[in-house]
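Help wanted!
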Amino acid sequence: MSHVSSVSPLGSGLARHGGTVRAPKGSARSALLGLLLGGLSCFVLLLPCRATAQPVPLELIRITPEQYQQSIRDVFGASIRIPDNPIEPGLREEGLLAVGGRKLTISSAGLERYESLARDIAAQVVEPRRRAVLVQCNPASESRPDRACATQFIRRVGLLLFRRPLDSAETRSFLETHTAAARALRSFDAGLSAALVRMLVDPNFLFRVERTEESASAEGSARLDAYSMAARLSFFFWNTTPDPELLEAARTGSLLTAAGLERQVDRLLDSPRLESGVRALFSDMLGFDAFATLAIDTTLYPAFTKQVRDDAGEQTLRTLVELLIHRDGDYRDIFVTRDTYLTPSLAAVYNVPLARSQELGGAVPWSRYRFPDDSPYVGILSHVSFLSLHSHAARSSPTLRGKALRERILCQRVPPPPGNIDFTSFEDPENPMKTARDRLAAHNTNPVCAGCHRLTDPGGLALEPFDTAGAFRTMENGVVIDPSGQINGRKFDGPAGLAQILRDTPAVTGCLVNRAFSYGVQRKPQGEELEWLKQLQAQLLETGVRLRPLLRSLATDPRFFTIRSPEPVPTARAETSGTSTSPGP
Amino acid sequence: MSKSRRYTRRSVLRGTIAGAAVYLALPILDSSLNDSGTAYADTGEALPPCFGTWFWGCGLTPELWEPTATGRAYELPEHLGALAPMKQKINIYSGMQAFLDGKVNQNHFGGAQCQMTGMVTRSAGEYSTSLDTLIGNRIGTTTRFRSLEVSCDGNRRSTWSARGQNGMNPAEISPIALYARIFGTGFKDPNAGEFQPDPAVMVRRSVLSGVTEQRRALLAKVSAADRTRLDEYFTSVRDLEQQLDIQLRKPAPLAACSVPPPVEAEDLGTLVGQTAGTHRQFARLLAHALACGQTQVFNVAMGSALSQLRKEGDINGYHQLTHEEPIDPGLGYQPKCRWLAEQHMGMFVELLQILDGIREGSATLLDRTIVFAFTDHGEARLHSMKRYPVFTAGSGGGRMKTGFHVAAEGDTVTRVGFTIQRALGLSEGSWGTESNRATVPFGELLA
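Answered by r_m:
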């Protein structure tokens, strides 16, 4: 990794990973040593170096609507009402919305919505019963500002919302907002609300701001500071803002030691809140954001009700959480498991009888269900979620399903169709084609098309026994569907055969490792990180592909806490020509 | 971008609230109008122009839509029959193309990107500032909303409007929500007798000033790429500040402004009836918003470029049909595709009629608007980037001539956007990149 080596202040095991470690903020000795060694390596190794160390720019990641909601609930309590904020769609990069979060900004419509949400939330926070709990001090007068009480609130809430302590100038500025508003509206609460609204529309809340405390290495990577590490961990494992204990570990610097980091990682992994993080990871990986715009024709597929649309993703997430977290099962089994959860609405699509759940006296619509061994439904690819998300509104699509299989499950890239293609052979009115297989076979007489369709279609055709909505069928337009095929040199006879092949394909594990890393650090792996991830994949294949050990391996390694500056590290030539890459004023 | 905003001494007032400085931009309509309602009485300045885009996916039926004659003396082909009532206020452009310059054809994306941003990029992640934003920065900086975006297929991602790199302006999909946003809390009826500035709004305004104060310090600490994103965020803050400024001032009466009845029900979806109904609801709301001075810029998308518009009872949407419907040997075209294309044209003309139905003195709202209608492919069946059907409607307050068919075989399709920019007062010498760089507007259309 870095050519700069330094000494761990606590002699921790971090150095064994070859990562750059440093003392908690304020350690002059380590800073000096780092500078000396950094300068030395520039000189001795003749590497491009900076005349003086430049600070690494801050990096911004827009938080997701779910992270916004969860953060608010964690800070102000689960009873806060937060309307959905579907205003700003995400950007999928490298297969993940998490990676696209580094490229997004906030539009005018989005900010308008955030400000409105902020006022709604602030009004709830100062309601008498909540204020008593959340503000923890009483103003001298209800009709005037109270600097002492407001300062206490601003500091405490600011720490949780900004994921780091406010500096004194920030605290002063929020206090001014409180004072001006409380005076103008003759109300302490109105002043407190105004300060809170300002925090909730502040870029330090709406974006995660990643900071480093040291210069970039020659490769352009640098370690996060302790608070940014805490945030990365918390959003990775729990999909929310860091809790007080994690922030305290950042404050004391214990998070910067191997033992302290491992302690926090284990605590995060052992918490029931891990479920939120795992749900968020797989929702992103499987593209469940698309349910918001999924339009299956309910005239042609009457069983595909709005309830089914709402339940479909949840079925898969419950299945994954049960298998991977509660049972500590092997990730590869998600393709072959017959255990799942259903609601009555989903059971209607699958056409199976469902005994009403006895949980909470039958109040919960979800029941455990196991598809019989002879059922065509096996694994998550036969779930309504996968089948309907990758269909057209009124027709199934082997190409869309096959493409999703390649891209989402195997992390492969399917190129877009070429332009200026001629579909004439596909459109023979004299010989109308009955099944998708016939249509695609005709289509693939064009060699330009065949290249990609050879990749996508076999997997998709295996799932043709499931219609657009996910219901089982044996015929299409009066002709028996043939779901057999071949993938990666292995033959299969239908959905169950395909599932078993996937179960045995190492690339499935490699894809999970890659996605989990990219999701956590919110960028794609680069350079030697790829080799590290390959090693992880090999280890998992040997020991069993279990999620907790994978997440733990990632998050206890220093390489998980680097940022890579998108800006080129200046070269000697660039410096002599007077080019500056330092951020301007 | 905020830095390109122009504030004159006349348009900005400075005030204070509890000692904090507050800058108030005057709404452009804060001035009385002349007797005919088409201009300001004090300056004689005409009502400001408006600009809108209207996108539909998968284009029209090739060979059926291009008029044979050019200039004003052309006949509308049958395929465009729906446009007949508005023919004199429309221009049709044919023959133009989007150049790939060696890049991969990103089907259903590159052509629309070209027409809205002047460039074709290697990936969708490089989409940047769009035509409506450029024009809005010139003509629409003092309205309550910088612009309003809607999509008629229930998909927020169906939008081509962007500010800055990846700063896509998400589309509103619900007419009920759009009504609340424009005419709910925060709307000041210009024709209401009484006006009382709300102290709570003044506080909201000062809260945002506090956010803006840290702009410079924060921008100095981020990378160049993040600086652009952060600057867009602060521009969004500025837009909201402006909304609040406008709520704090009494607007001048506007004869053509009326508040539409609330939208009580909606039926979102991609069936023709659903999309047409949603589009009609949006068109009415946008027309009222323009007439009431709430915005001067709007963007309507009928749906995504992979148009899912579908005839009731048919299992295939428009996009699928363009690729899979056989060309009828007798007719020489894809009949279902033709029908869907004509439904789109019917919806376009309905928007124009709604705008034209709002009279402002001796002219109409459409007359002071320019609507730019564009699509993703010249022939969707083949993902063709040639022979794009393009339309404009309205004259932008007499700035652009109408009633023409312009044939510009082989030219870059960005010439249309460039011509509109010229008409609306942008003075740059070119627009676009590489072969899609337009340098010559359609001079015959400029008034």
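OP: Thanks! One thing I noticed: The radius of gyration of chain B is 22 Å.
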